[in-house]
Amino acid sequence: MRSEAFASVLTAAATGAPWALKELWIQYSPAVHGFLRARGSAEPEDLTSEVFLTVFDALPRFSGGEGEFRSFVFTIAYRRLVDELRARSRRPPHVEWADHGDPRRALDAETEALTSIGDQQTRRLLDSLAPDQRDVLVLRIIADLTVEEVATILGKRVGAVKALQRRGLDALRKKISPARTLFSPADDSEK
Questions:
Q1: What pLDDT score does 176 carry?
Q2: pLDDT at res. 35
Q3: How confident is the model at residue 80 (pLDDT cuts 50, 70, 90)?
Q4: How far is C-alpha 40 from the geometric centre of its chain's CA atoms?
Q5: How far apart are the first and last CA of the chain?
Q6: Apex 123 CA angle, 117 and 125, nearest 5
Q7: Within its chain, how far is the Cα of 6 from the centroid?
Q8: pLDDT for res 188
Q9: How many degrees, rounded to 5, is the angle at CA 159 between CA 158 and CA 161?
Q10: How far from 54 is each of 69, 71, 83, CA to CA, in Å?
Q11: Tens-place pLDDT, residues 107-117
C-alpha cells in the first residue's frame, strides 16, 4: 500500500470507519494468521480475531507509518500467542468429540496425507529449531517483518536477531539436503 493511501486508511480506521477497518483486516490478517498457525496456536482463526480487536481498539492512540503499524500488529499477535501458550501449559486442553475428527474414520487417506504433509513437515522443521531462532524466522518469513521490527517485537538487539536468523537458516540447511525432495529416499547409494 502506498504511504499516503495507508495514512488515509489508518486515519479513517482510527475513527471507526468500517471500510477502513475491513481494509486493514484484509491487508494484515492473512500474515497474522500464518504467523499464529506456524507458531502452534490451537485456534489461529480465533486468536487472529482477538489480535485485530485489540488493534482496532488501540488505533486512536497509535501513531506512525506502515512499518510501525506492522510492528504494532505483530507485537500484539506475539503477546497474545505467548498468553495462549502459557495458558495451555497450565491446563490440559479440553477436546470435544466430533465425528469428522475421529481418527478411526477417514474419508480418503491420500487426500488427507497430501493436504497435511506440507504443514506437518514445515512444523517439524520449525519445531526442531531453538525457540528464539524459530520466532525470528517465522516473523521474518511468514510475517514479512524487517530485522528491526522483529527486534522490537522480541525485545532483542538487531545484531542478535540477525545472528538468530543466520543460525536458524544454517540449521535448516543442514536438515534439508538440496539433493533430497519430499518423496526421494534419504540414501543416494543407488546412484
A1: 77
A2: 93
A3: very high
A4: 9
A5: 50
A6: 100
A7: 23
A8: 46
A9: 65
A10: 13, 14, 14
A11: 554 455 545 55
pLDDT digits (tens, 9 = 90+) for 135-186: 998 898 888 899 999 999 999 999 999 999 999 988 888 887 654 544 444 4
Residue 48 neighbours by CB distance under 10 Å: 24
Task: Tell me the C-alpha distance between 32 and 48, whole Å.
Answer: 6
Interatomic CA distance for residues 69 and 183, integer angstroms:
41
Torsions phi, psi for 144 (to 5 deg): 55, 45
User: Of the candidates 5, 19, 131, which has an alpha carbon nearest to the alpha carbon of residue 69?
Assistant: 5
Q: 150: helix, coil or strand?
A: helix
Q: Give the domains, in start order, of the chain with CATH numbers.
A: 1-91 (1.10.1740.10), 115-176 (1.10.10.10)
Residue with cell 506492522: 70
Q: Which three cell numbers stand for residue 118?
A: 506440507
Alpha-carbon dihedral 32, 34, 38, 44, rounded to 10 degrees = 70
DSSP 141: I
- How far out from the chain centre does Cα 175 lie? 21
Task: Please indicate, yes or no, whether the overall pTM of this predicted structure exceeds 0.85.
Answer: no
